[in-house]
Specification:
about 475 residues, 2 domains
Length: about 475
């Protein structure tokens, strides 16, 4: 019961933070896109791909290893901290060394001045890994959420000011770097923990087997999640990459808001249930239906309003984003089942099965990328959707080895929300058809949004799907905890 109380409270704080952050970043993104151009985003994204890959090496799976351990010593915390900082520093030097090559390869001289600053993300992100891990272990998601919000506000406001004052592409760099720097500073000021003693790599050895296999999985996931953007930037144009990236980022915002808020809380919570497969399966099922209930209407609703939304809020130069965004939104539908199944694998497996499944998934992804990259950017977007589907399918089958978790279970946990969201989508398109020639576009957009919300709410009340019931229980428990 105490664990469930921690989970509910943690989900409330984390979900509130993620939703606020996503909405705020969406607003800031719209402001920046009015001042910037697609090739600005394309250039920055090429460099961000390299920082993302390096950040996985910095952590090397040790954060997850610490979270799942029943007890962690000061020596282990210090060892992981020193490892993170040393690896981050070494990787920063490597990134500086390859910067001239990247600048020539992508025909972008501006990278020579941007890269040394943006690559500071790697060491900056490493500084507060332990503080974040300790807060996660203690279910103190309120502190993490508060500091994430403050950091987002600080970094985003700085970016808007920079864009308005004519800083151009540097405003994107400022946002990318300042947000994690502010969060790291706040976590250090708040925490009493400090590394002690000399670095002891011996303390890492018991965790190395698990963390190394997790590293292999995470690094391949990160590479395959970003590799298409590197090809787009080279084989097509930075404008095309900017359009694709904006579509991907705006798809990711609502998905990440739901997935991250639930995953960050449920991974440590499910870890506590690893010796009780029945309870783990029940908890995983409840998490899945809640995420499906939230994500499906958002993804299909965004597909419906995408064109009108960009027409209202952005210059015409951004209209090519629409088809990429709509296609990539479909990939978000497979995220809940994939993430929950992968969490089960991380908890129940020693890492060997995860690695074998990753090999299979990446063979499939490689074939899809090889087939789509030479065709067009739109084909790449469709390929990404197929990759997300195959990942969800394979993760689910893998998790079934440890608990009573099957593909049929995934279909049952998905079908009601797909049907309700499809009905909502039809209603939104119907409303658009009725009003488009008789009202101003902002009013049409408002009517579409209100129609979608009303239809999904009414269907939830009438059908009372499990996800709706679980969310009501969570809200009631949050209210009870506040009293």
């Amino acid at each position: 019961m105490e664990l469930k109380k921690h989970v509910v409270k943690g989900m409330a704080w984390t979900f509130a933070e993620k939703v606020f952050t996503a909405l705020f970043q969406m607003l800031v993104g719209l402001v920046l896109m009015n001042f910037l151009f697609p090739d600005d985003y394309g250039t920055i994204q090429i460099l961000v791909v390299f920082t993302s890959v390096c950040s996985v090496f910095v952590d090397s799976g040790f954060s997850a290893a610490l979270i799942r351990k029943p007890e962690v010593t000061q020596t282990e915390y210090s060892a992981v901290f020193f490892f993170n900082v040393l690896v981050a520093s070494a990787l920063y030097i490597v990134l500086l060394a390859i910067t001239p090559f990247l600048s020539r390869y992508y025909h972008s001289p501006v990278m020579l001045s941007l890269a040394p600053v943006l690559f500071l993300l790697v060491p900056v992100n490493s500084l507060a890994n332990i503080q974040n891990t300790m807060l996660t272990r203690s279910f103190d998601f309120a502190t993490i959420s508060k500091y994430t919000v403050w950091a987002t506000l600080g970094g985003s406001c700085a970016a808007v000011i920079m864009a308005i004052t004519g800083c151009g592409i540097w405003s994107l760099l400022g946002q990318r770097l300042l947000t994690p720097a502010i969060k790291s500073l706040l976590l250090w000021l708040r925490s009493d923990w400090r590394p002690t003693g000399r670095p002891s790599m011996r303390a890492l050895r018991p965790m190395t087997g698990y963390s190394s296999r997790l590293l292999l999985s995470d690094i391949t996931n990160t590479i395959y999640a970003n590799i298409s953007e590197l090809f787009i930037g080279r084989m097509y144009t930075k404008n095309a990459l900017g359009y694709y990236n904006r579509g991907k980022q705006y798809k990711d915002m609502p998905v990440s808001a739901v997935i991250s808020s639930v995953q960050n809380v449920t991974f440590p919570a499910l870890s506590k249930l690893q010796d009780n497969p029945a309870k783990m399966r029940l908890s995983a099922h409840q998490v899945t239906v809640v995420m499906n209930f939230l994500i499906y209407p958002v993804m299909l609703g965004l597909i419906a309003i995408a064109h009108d939304f960009i027409d209202v809020f952005l210059p015409d130069r951004w209209l090519p984003v629409v088809p990429y965004f709509q296609i990539l939104c479909l990939s978000g539908l497979f995220a809940p089942l994939s993430v929950v199944s992968y969490n089960i694998l991380k908890i129940k497996s020693d890492g060997k099965l995860i690695f074998r499944l990753e090999v299979l998934k990446k063979l499939i992804a490689t074939a899809i990328l090889a087939a789509t990259i030479p065709v067009s950017v739109k084909a790449i977007a469709w390929g990404q959707t197929v990759i997300y589907f195959s990942d969800a399918l394979i993760n689910t089958i893998g998790a079934g080895r440890f608990i009573n978790w099957s593909v049929w279970h995934g279909v049952k946990s998905t079908a009601p929300y797909m049907a309700m969201s499809a009905a909502m989508l039809a209603a939104v398109y119907g409303m658009r058809t009725l009003l488009l020639e008789h009202a101003a576009l902002p009013l049409v957009l408002l009517a579409e949004i209100l129609t979608g919300l009303a239809i999904y709410w009414l269907l939830s009340i009438a059908l009372k799907p499990e996800g709706w019931r679980e969310i009501r229980i969570i809200l009631e428990q949050i209210a009870a905890n506040r009293k």
